[in-house]
Amino acid sequence: MSASDWAIFVSAFVTLLVVIDPPGVAPIFASLTHGQSRAYRFKMALKGTLVATGVLFSFAFGGEWLLEAVGIGLPAFSTAGGILLFYMGMEMVFEKRTERRTKTAEHAVEEVHQQHPDQDGPEDISVFPLGIPLMAGPGAMATTVLLMSANEGAFIAQGAVLTALGLVLVLTFLILVFLTEAIQLAGDTFSILLTRLMGVMLTALAVQYVFNGLKAGLLS
Question: I need a labelling partner for 198 at 20 to 30 A (CA). Which of 13, 55, 119, 189 fits?
Fold first, then answer.
Protein backbone atom coordinates (compact mmCIF):
# COMPACT_ATOMS: atom_id res chain seq x y z
CA MET A 1 0.00 0.00 0.00
CA SER A 2 1.06 3.56 -0.65
CA ALA A 3 1.53 6.15 2.08
CA SER A 4 -1.94 7.56 1.39
CA ASP A 5 -3.51 4.10 1.70
CA TRP A 6 -1.72 3.56 5.01
CA ALA A 7 -3.06 6.92 6.18
CA ILE A 8 -6.58 5.83 5.21
CA PHE A 9 -6.11 2.56 7.09
CA VAL A 10 -4.91 4.32 10.26
CA SER A 11 -7.69 6.91 10.07
CA ALA A 12 -10.35 4.22 9.52
CA PHE A 13 -8.97 2.05 12.32
CA VAL A 14 -8.96 4.91 14.84
CA THR A 15 -12.40 6.12 13.78
CA LEU A 16 -14.02 2.68 13.97
CA LEU A 17 -12.25 1.90 17.24
CA VAL A 18 -13.67 5.06 18.79
CA VAL A 19 -17.17 4.50 17.39
CA ILE A 20 -17.48 0.81 18.32
CA ASP A 21 -15.74 1.57 21.64
CA PRO A 22 -14.67 -1.90 22.87
CA PRO A 23 -13.67 -0.60 26.35
CA GLY A 24 -17.19 0.79 26.68
CA VAL A 25 -18.85 -2.44 25.56
CA ALA A 26 -16.73 -4.65 27.85
CA PRO A 27 -18.23 -3.57 31.23
CA ILE A 28 -21.76 -3.98 29.87
CA PHE A 29 -20.85 -7.41 28.52
CA ALA A 30 -19.42 -8.30 31.93
CA SER A 31 -22.64 -7.28 33.70
CA LEU A 32 -24.80 -9.22 31.22
CA THR A 33 -22.70 -12.38 31.67
CA HIS A 34 -22.05 -12.03 35.40
CA GLY A 35 -22.00 -15.38 37.16
CA GLN A 36 -21.84 -17.38 33.92
CA SER A 37 -19.10 -19.78 32.83
CA ARG A 38 -16.13 -18.81 30.70
CA ALA A 39 -17.45 -21.08 27.96
CA TYR A 40 -20.71 -19.13 27.91
CA ARG A 41 -18.89 -15.76 27.80
CA PHE A 42 -16.65 -17.00 24.98
CA LYS A 43 -19.65 -18.27 23.01
CA MET A 44 -21.60 -15.01 23.43
CA ALA A 45 -18.57 -12.88 22.53
CA LEU A 46 -17.86 -14.96 19.42
CA LYS A 47 -21.47 -15.02 18.20
CA GLY A 48 -21.94 -11.33 18.95
CA THR A 49 -18.79 -10.44 17.01
CA LEU A 50 -19.87 -12.56 14.04
CA VAL A 51 -23.29 -10.87 14.02
CA ALA A 52 -21.70 -7.41 14.14
CA THR A 53 -19.25 -8.43 11.40
CA GLY A 54 -22.06 -9.59 9.12
CA VAL A 55 -24.06 -6.40 9.67
CA LEU A 56 -21.18 -3.95 9.23
CA PHE A 57 -19.69 -5.69 6.20
CA SER A 58 -23.16 -5.75 4.62
CA PHE A 59 -23.35 -1.99 5.09
CA ALA A 60 -19.79 -1.64 3.76
CA PHE A 61 -20.69 -3.34 0.48
CA GLY A 62 -24.35 -2.35 0.15
CA GLY A 63 -24.64 0.93 2.03
CA GLU A 64 -23.92 3.21 -0.93
CA TRP A 65 -26.34 1.28 -3.13
CA LEU A 66 -29.01 1.72 -0.45
CA LEU A 67 -28.37 5.47 -0.31
CA GLU A 68 -28.70 5.75 -4.09
CA ALA A 69 -31.88 3.67 -4.03
CA VAL A 70 -33.59 6.07 -1.63
CA GLY A 71 -32.18 9.18 -3.31
CA ILE A 72 -29.74 10.30 -0.60
CA GLY A 73 -26.53 11.91 -1.84
CA LEU A 74 -23.17 11.31 -0.19
CA PRO A 75 -22.77 14.97 0.92
CA ALA A 76 -26.10 14.84 2.75
CA PHE A 77 -25.26 11.49 4.33
CA SER A 78 -21.81 12.72 5.33
CA THR A 79 -23.33 15.77 7.03
CA ALA A 80 -26.04 13.74 8.77
CA GLY A 81 -23.56 11.05 9.79
CA GLY A 82 -21.22 13.69 11.18
CA ILE A 83 -24.03 15.16 13.28
CA LEU A 84 -24.90 11.69 14.61
CA LEU A 85 -21.27 10.96 15.49
CA PHE A 86 -20.93 14.39 17.12
CA TYR A 87 -23.90 13.58 19.35
CA MET A 88 -22.33 10.23 20.25
CA GLY A 89 -19.02 11.92 21.00
CA MET A 90 -20.68 14.44 23.29
CA GLU A 91 -22.41 11.59 25.10
CA MET A 92 -19.02 9.97 25.66
CA VAL A 93 -17.44 13.23 26.88
CA PHE A 94 -20.22 13.74 29.42
CA GLU A 95 -20.37 10.00 30.33
CA LYS A 96 -23.88 9.44 28.98
CA ARG A 97 -23.24 6.86 26.27
CA THR A 98 -22.30 4.02 28.61
CA GLU A 99 -25.37 4.76 30.74
CA ARG A 100 -27.62 4.65 27.66
CA ARG A 101 -26.02 1.44 26.43
CA THR A 102 -26.43 -0.18 29.85
CA LYS A 103 -30.12 0.72 29.97
CA THR A 104 -30.60 -0.67 26.45
CA ALA A 105 -28.91 -3.93 27.41
CA GLU A 106 -30.90 -4.27 30.64
CA HIS A 107 -34.15 -3.58 28.79
CA ALA A 108 -33.27 -6.24 26.21
CA VAL A 109 -32.63 -8.84 28.92
CA GLU A 110 -35.94 -7.97 30.60
CA GLU A 111 -37.77 -8.46 27.30
CA VAL A 112 -36.17 -11.88 26.84
CA HIS A 113 -37.26 -12.90 30.35
CA GLN A 114 -40.81 -11.73 29.70
CA GLN A 115 -41.07 -13.50 26.35
CA HIS A 116 -39.45 -16.73 27.59
CA PRO A 117 -40.18 -17.00 31.32
CA ASP A 118 -39.68 -20.78 31.37
CA GLN A 119 -36.35 -20.76 29.51
CA ASP A 120 -33.73 -22.97 31.12
CA GLY A 121 -30.17 -21.67 31.37
CA PRO A 122 -28.77 -18.25 30.56
CA GLU A 123 -30.32 -16.25 27.72
CA ASP A 124 -28.63 -15.70 24.38
CA ILE A 125 -27.46 -12.07 24.29
CA SER A 126 -25.24 -12.46 21.22
CA VAL A 127 -27.59 -10.98 18.61
CA PHE A 128 -29.44 -8.48 20.79
CA PRO A 129 -28.16 -6.45 22.53
CA LEU A 130 -24.48 -7.44 22.07
CA GLY A 131 -24.19 -7.72 18.29
CA ILE A 132 -26.83 -5.07 17.66
CA PRO A 133 -26.75 -2.30 18.85
CA LEU A 134 -23.79 -2.45 21.28
CA MET A 135 -21.24 -3.40 18.63
CA ALA A 136 -22.97 -2.69 15.32
CA GLY A 137 -24.97 0.38 16.28
CA PRO A 138 -26.20 3.23 14.06
CA GLY A 139 -22.94 5.11 14.50
CA ALA A 140 -20.82 2.15 13.39
CA MET A 141 -23.10 1.52 10.40
CA ALA A 142 -23.00 5.17 9.31
CA THR A 143 -19.23 5.38 9.78
CA THR A 144 -18.65 2.24 7.72
CA VAL A 145 -20.73 3.60 4.83
CA LEU A 146 -19.00 6.99 5.03
CA LEU A 147 -15.51 5.49 4.97
CA MET A 148 -16.29 3.22 2.03
CA SER A 149 -18.11 5.92 0.06
CA ALA A 150 -15.31 8.42 0.61
CA ASN A 151 -12.95 6.02 -1.19
CA GLU A 152 -15.30 4.98 -3.99
CA GLY A 153 -13.42 3.50 -6.93
CA ALA A 154 -10.16 3.19 -4.98
CA PHE A 155 -10.13 -0.54 -4.35
CA ILE A 156 -6.90 -0.59 -2.34
CA ALA A 157 -8.17 2.22 -0.11
CA GLN A 158 -11.49 0.44 0.39
CA GLY A 159 -9.57 -2.74 1.18
CA ALA A 160 -7.68 -0.77 3.82
CA VAL A 161 -11.00 0.34 5.34
CA LEU A 162 -12.31 -3.24 5.39
CA THR A 163 -9.07 -4.45 6.95
CA ALA A 164 -9.33 -1.78 9.64
CA LEU A 165 -12.94 -2.78 10.31
CA GLY A 166 -11.98 -6.44 10.62
CA LEU A 167 -9.12 -5.67 13.00
CA VAL A 168 -11.35 -3.53 15.22
CA LEU A 169 -13.92 -6.33 15.43
CA VAL A 170 -11.21 -8.90 16.25
CA LEU A 171 -9.83 -6.55 18.91
CA THR A 172 -13.32 -6.10 20.33
CA PHE A 173 -13.75 -9.88 20.56
CA LEU A 174 -10.39 -10.28 22.32
CA ILE A 175 -11.24 -7.53 24.80
CA LEU A 176 -14.60 -9.14 25.57
CA VAL A 177 -13.01 -12.55 26.12
CA PHE A 178 -9.76 -11.70 27.86
CA LEU A 179 -9.87 -8.15 29.21
CA THR A 180 -13.42 -7.68 30.50
CA GLU A 181 -12.49 -8.56 34.06
CA ALA A 182 -9.28 -6.49 33.89
CA ILE A 183 -11.24 -3.40 32.79
CA GLN A 184 -13.61 -3.91 35.70
CA LEU A 185 -10.70 -4.21 38.13
CA ALA A 186 -9.16 -1.00 36.75
CA GLY A 187 -12.14 0.82 38.18
CA ASP A 188 -14.57 3.49 37.05
CA THR A 189 -11.95 6.25 36.95
CA PHE A 190 -9.94 4.55 34.22
CA SER A 191 -13.07 3.73 32.22
CA ILE A 192 -14.41 7.29 32.46
CA LEU A 193 -11.06 8.81 31.47
CA LEU A 194 -10.69 6.53 28.46
CA THR A 195 -14.27 7.10 27.34
CA ARG A 196 -13.94 10.88 27.54
CA LEU A 197 -10.66 10.93 25.62
CA MET A 198 -12.22 8.81 22.88
CA GLY A 199 -15.27 11.08 22.93
CA VAL A 200 -13.12 14.15 22.22
CA MET A 201 -11.53 12.36 19.27
CA LEU A 202 -14.93 11.32 17.95
CA THR A 203 -16.38 14.85 18.11
CA ALA A 204 -13.39 16.18 16.15
CA LEU A 205 -13.83 13.48 13.49
CA ALA A 206 -17.56 14.20 13.38
CA VAL A 207 -17.00 17.91 12.74
CA GLN A 208 -14.67 16.99 9.88
CA TYR A 209 -17.38 14.79 8.33
CA VAL A 210 -19.85 17.68 8.56
CA PHE A 211 -17.36 20.07 6.94
CA ASN A 212 -16.67 17.57 4.15
CA GLY A 213 -20.38 17.04 3.53
CA LEU A 214 -21.18 20.77 3.45
CA LYS A 215 -18.20 21.50 1.20
CA ALA A 216 -19.15 18.74 -1.27
CA GLY A 217 -22.78 19.83 -1.21
CA LEU A 218 -21.98 23.47 -1.93
CA LEU A 219 -19.58 22.61 -4.73
CA SER A 220 -21.89 20.11 -6.42
Answer: 55
